[in-house]
Amino acid sequence: VPVFLGNYSSAIRVAEFDPSSGRLGGDRVAIDLAKASFLAKSANDRFLYAVAETGSGAIHAFAIGAEHDLT
């Protein structure tokens, strides 16, 4: 199960969660975005919304690709 991570760094990361073992691993950069904090997926799982806490702040919307890349 893909899990998107925003942690105030320079990118949103995606990792794989294994519900049977409870392990989270294989994280990688999904897209560069400085200071991403709050993340939310759309109800249909096709989009990811992110708050970037830079300057006056901004909200970004990304399409989620087949390999969980964001565009």
Model description:
The chain is an all-beta fold. 0% of the residues lie in helices and 58% in strands. The protein contains no helices and 6 strands. The strands form 2 sheets. Strands 1-2-3 form a 3-stranded antiparallel sheet, with no helix packed on it. Strand 5 (47-52) and strand 6 form a beta hairpin. The chain is globular.
Task: Describe the strand arrangement of the main beta sheet, using strand numbers.
Answer: 1-2-3
- In total, the number of strands is 6
Amount of beta strand? over 45%
SSE pattern: EEEEEE
**Radius of gyration (Å):** 12 Å
Number of helices: 0
List keywords for this structure.
3-stranded antiparallel sheet; globular
Short précis:
The protein has strands at 2-6, 11-18, 23-32, 36-41, 47-52, 58-63.
Q: How is the topology of this model organized?
A:
Layout: E1 2-6, E2 11-18, E3 23-32, E4 36-41, E5 47-52, E6 58-63
Antiparallel strand pairs: 1-2, 2-3, 4-5, 5-6
